[in-house]
Design brief:
Helices cover 19% and strands 15% of the residues. The chain has one domain. Strand 1 and strand 2 form a beta hairpin. By secondary structure, the protein is of the alpha+beta class. The protein is built from 2 helices and 2 strands, in the order H-E-E-H. Strands 1-2 form a two-stranded antiparallel sheet.
């Protein structure tokens, strides 16, 4: 017999978290979970706390805010105009 708290492991080793639990625990896409083996028939899943990065890690992705859709040849043309 199956209930809404029962899931199936796929051939790729994946499973779904029941919707009621996802909603109650605010588990959104990208949220990290830690799996631990408790016994031969029991696992523990812990929600990993989200921590703001510090130091150099905090700068990761910062340069993307300056990225534009201009092509290299457009940049070079603009730079060469200053040489003329």
């Amino acid at each position: 017999m199956s209930d809404s708290r029962t899931t199936v492991v796929t051939e790729r080793g994946q499973t779904s978290i029941p919707a009621a639990l996802r909603k109650a625990l605010h588990l959104d896409k990208g949220r990290r979970l830690r799996w631990e083996r408790v016994s031969n028939r029991e696992l523990r899943v812990t929600i990993v706390d989200e921590v703001d990065p510090v130091g150099p890690e905090a700068m990761r992705g910062f340069a993307r805010t300056f990225r534009t859709t201009r092509q290299t040849d457009e940049w070079m043309e603009e730079l060469r105009e200053g040489e003329r």
